Structure formats: C-alpha cells, structure tokens
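Hey all, sorry for the wall of text incoming. These are the two entities for the joint prediction.
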Amino acid sequence: MSTQNLIYLFVGISFALYIGIAIWTRAGSTKEFYVAGGGVHPIVNGMATAADWMSAASFISMAGLIAFMGYDGSVYLMGWTGGYVVLALLLAPYLRKFGQFTVPDFIGTRYYSKVARTVAVICLIFISFTYIAGQMRGVGIVFSRFLDVDVNMGVIIGMCIVFVYAVLGGMKGITYTQVAQYCVLIFAYMVPAFFISMLVTGNPIPQLGLGSTVNDGSGMYVLQKLDESLQMMGFGPYTDGSKSMIDVFCITAALMIGTAGLPHVIVRFFTVPKASDARRSAGWALIFIALLYTTAPAVAAFARLNFNSTVNEQSYAEAPGWFKNWEKNNLIAWTDKNGDGVMQVAKGDAFKGAPEFAEGTGPNGERLVSNEVLTDNANEVYVDKDIMVLANPEIANLPGWVIALVAAGGLAAALSTAAGLLLVISTAVSHDLLKSTFKPSISEKGELLAARVAATCAIVVAGILGIYPPGWVAQVVAFAFGLAAASLFPAIFMGIFSKTMNKEGAIAGMVTGLVFTFVYIAYFKLVNPDANVAENWLLGISPEGIGVIGMVLNFIVALVVMKMTAPAPAEIGRLVESIRVPRGAGEARAH
Amino acid sequence: MSDETPDTSASAGAYWKKNIRLLITLMAIWFIVSFGFGILLRDFLDQFMLGGFPLGFWFAQQGSIYVFILLVFYYAWKVKKIEREYDLDD
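and here's what came out:
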C-alpha cells in the first residue's frame, strides 16, 4: 500500500476510534459535562491531562525549536514540566477539595464577589482563545501536509471531529478520547525517536543516546560532535545559549507558573474522586509528559547533527531524498548564492522571510524562490523547524506506516488540546456567566443545553480564527502563559495560603497583573515589533518572560490593597480551613 | 459549601504547619535543580561531565525533569502519612 493510502487508513481509524468513544461516553448531566462525573481514575486522568497539555506545537515544533536553540531550548523543557510540581504541591489538591466545577467558581466564592468571578472569566476566555486559535491552525497544517488537502479544508474537518466529541461527550467524552489520543501520539513520537537514536548512537533509548558517543567510529560524544560541527559552520556551540541568564530564568519561571495557572489544565484535576487523587494524578500526568519532553531534546540534537552532516557542503544533485520531498512541500528551500551547486549552511537567513516559490527550477533542479536574497551571510538553506520531527521517519529510512503514524500522532496532539480548551470556554460561559452570574434560576437541563450551545459557538469562533489567522496568532503564544502567571495564579495561590486576603486585594492584584503583562507584550509584539530587542526590555526581560514581573506586581498590589481595606469575613477563614484538610472532599458537586 | 467541614481544631492547625514545612523543603529542591543547577550554576557545573553530558546542560534538559517526577510522588506519599497521623486523610 502506498504511504499516502496508509496515512488515510491510520488517520481514518484513529478518527473512528475517537468518535466511537465519544458516542459511548455521552454526558447526561452538567456534572458529567463539566468534570466527567468526578470519578475518573488518577492514572486515566494523568494520561488525559498529558494529551490535553501536549499540543501540535509540542509534538511537531518543539524538537525543531530546541534543535536550533540548543541550550536555550531548555526554557521549554523545564518550563512546561516544572509547572506540574507547582500544580501538584500548591494548587490541585486544594482546588479539588473545594469541589466545584471551574476556576472562576473558586475565585468568585473565595473572594465572595461576582466582580472577582467576572475578572477571572475574562482572564480565562482570553487565555484560552489565544491558545486555541493556534491549535486549530495546527490541525489545518497537519492535514494539509499529510492528507493533501487545503489548510482551510483541514481546519473545517478538524472542527467537525472536535464538534462531535466535545459537544456530545463534554468532559466525559473528552477524557476518554484524550486517553486514546495520548496513546496514539506517544507511540507516534517514540517509534521514530528509537530508530534515530539507534542510527546515530547505536543506543535505542534516546535519553541515553543523547549522552553517548556517535556511531561513526570517531569516539566523540553526540553533544561534543554537535558543538564542534556547529562552530566550524560559524554558529555558537549547541550546549551554550545566546539568551541572557536573567531572560532564561524569567521565561522558565513564566512558563512554569503559567502552566500551573492555565484553566484547561487545572480543571482536569476536578475530575478525580479525592484531593489525594489530584496529587497522584498530577504525578502521573508529569510522567506521561516527561516521556515526550525528555525524548524531544535527544531528537533535536540527533536531527541537527544529521542535518549538518547530510546537507552542509553537499551538492544539491546528491541531496538526501527527504530534502527534496520537503522542498516540494515548501518547508525547505535552497538558493545557490555562490553558484557552486553545493549547499552551504551557515549562520543567518538565506533570504528574507518564508520562501515564496517561483515557477520553474534552477540549474541544479532546485525550486526557485522569489524572495529577496540576503547577501550579508553565506547561508543558502532555508529550513522550517518542523522538519526536524516530520522528516525523522524518512531520515531513518523507516517504512511508510511510520510516516502514517506520525500524521495520526500530530492530529491527536492538536485535536486533544483544542477539545480541552473548548470545554473550559464553554463551561465559563454556561456555568460562570449564565448560571452563577446572570440567571441562577436556570435548570440543570437548560444549563447543559447552554453548555453545548456555547461549545458549538466556541468551535465556530476557533475555526474562523484558524482559517483567517490574525497576523498576531504566532506572536501571542506568550500571552497565554504570561497572563495565566500574572493574573490567575496569584489569586488562586493566595486564596489557599492566606486566610486574610480579601476581595479588594485579589481584584486589584489580578487587574494589575493582567494589564501590566498585556501592555508589555502588546507593545513589543504588536504595536512596535521593531523595538523588540534586549536593549529596550525592562531589566533585560523579553515579552516571553515578563509574566513573572506581572506576577510579582500582582502579589505586591494585592497585599498593599488588602492592608488598606476591610478584612475578609470570618466565614471565608473557615472556608479556607476546610479547603486545607483533605477529608470530606466527596464528589465535585453542583451547588 | 461546607456541610461536611471537618473539625478545625488544633490537629488541623498542626497538620497544616507540618504540610507547609514539607512544601517549603520540596519547593526549595524544585528551585535548586531547575533554576539553580540548570540556569544559575550551569556554567560552573558544565565543567563536570555526566557521560557525554556537561552536567549543567543535563540538569537543564533531562535531570530537572526526573527530579520533578520524584518530588510530586514523594509529596503525595509523605503528606498522606502526615494526614493519617492527624486523622485528616480522605
């Protein structure tokens, strides 16, 4: 069977599986729709959390980013795993003990204020929509790369699939679908990684292969060889970064704290039976995530090493097959600056922007690009970072079914994250806005219907954002983490660890953190992108890391305002005391 | 929402103190392996090798993640023990 047919087969089977699970686990009550009934086993929830968490970006792009960032890529590895320690130790068990459905539920009740709840809803919707627009685009891109359909058509197919299992199944459907999606995506990630590691080092375990010697008889370690080859080509060494220490520190911290404050992650821990289950479940989630996150840096290093040795100083005529395959898909381009027919890889961009291919081919058979060629550097090769994962199976000469598997895995990663985000958005609308704020008299049936309508609307909006991506989508991923760290995290943290924090303090803190972080990121990313260089940054901290400063401001403002306003009522002190002890969590309940 | 609030007596207070002390210890380790070994002390640690890894680089891309997993499971086990001691477990 041809590779293309295998891809159709694998993707078709996986979609049938997701929809089958969704029909089988349909939600019948709001409790099932919001928190899957509150009876999910901690290991199952851990697996669902891992799929929810790992997006198309983690699956397809992260290893490529690390391959080109070297040590600096550590910010993603530590940032997106360390957050689970914060979550498991400081937030999840207490929020589970509190026992309602949503993050705004907690903030609204703990700070005895509809204003606080509404501010939390605004933060949540902003964070989640920022995140989901990128996911829908990711779905479209995976479709177009593997299934030969238009990106927009891909987005629409993705919307339909998510519609079926998110709207029908709610949290219950999503949970069990995500378990299936995790299995698909981790298998699809690990299989090529094993083979690449075997190929490069002779050790099949990528985590160990990264610390082993290269399989070429030179006796050099992988990282040593990589440093040497990059330096010969004029790059800095792989194991050294180019970001300043304070920036690496702040980005890592913003990603960690932001992870712990992301509503679609927190809400997963409302689905387990007890507070102690929430702690264990976070541990399982971290194991499942770490499997991919400790493999990614190995894949990154192997792919970069392989890229250097098979592409640099290679004549185009003898370029490897995957190079020409992905050139056809617009992800690779070569422009022969010095006219020697040999591809030179060096520091700098080969030409301005992403390649725009012109008609016809050059003297060596390469596709011509119409971009303005940059002559201030010797680099002739443009490579999309996603190649590092997408081309892996071909680099390792793996059979067609592995390529099909990677396609199904990329789709699983994108769909599972999109569904989780859609759910928190619809819950925020039907539960936090409608039921708790505007129309408390609504019946259980009415609320469930509202949740489904809200989920449908959210899918349509997300799909439109995916089809017509505003130019800033790729630019604002930092928003989601920075805003979560600066707005929601401090309010939740103080709600648990301080009995005296009052509504005035919490609201002032959230608004300060949100506005400060938003303005800083918006200025450098949207208003004045040319000014986005280290000299102009506050304390040398990039927009990616500024959420940490927003968080510190949030804490300071909250404490100062608290001192100047009326103390929190006595019953709030008792509420906090009851959250702190695990006994009596019972099930997540309607109220 | 507190129809089944447990007694907020001295034992809950003592439990909370112990929990806080445990949290401070574990969060300190969390900080040291990632921000400490992986970022602030990286240049110093990179002079030592762990197999083919410079040590600071290893902590930043591998080691800190393994320690994170251990921290979460250790906390889940240890705090459960403390809860049982004060008869507050769920």
